[in-house]
């Protein structure tokens, strides 16, 4: 069960999101495949607020004023993130800014979005089926071969 939506599993959440993709929201936006990461980010933020304000008793005025003490507490709480999210277990290694999670690395290119690699902590796995294309001439790199951990 998800930490921030205990009535659902990750699969149930994704099924619901994809079912809603055919209909735009009342604001005109449709759900997309990145909604799992957005949901996990919101959960992480909500859990941090609960821990800092309710459990640790940080005054809201101090958080709003962005005092050094509030900043330190927020950073400490975020660094201890550990919950079951839509995209999997969300936690961080000590001193690391990236979560121990699995993600697909995509690049928006003319004609659509291209899956370039996967990342499962601590390793990249290039898929070997696309080029990374950047803005300047000559900045076009083969993202592979399949299974490679770096681009040569």
Automatic annotation (TrEMBL):
So which domain of life are we looking at?
Answer: Eukaryota
Question: What is the scientific name of the source organism?
Answer: Alexandrium andersonii
In Swiss-Prot or TrEMBL terms, this protein is called Receptor ligand binding region domain-containing protein
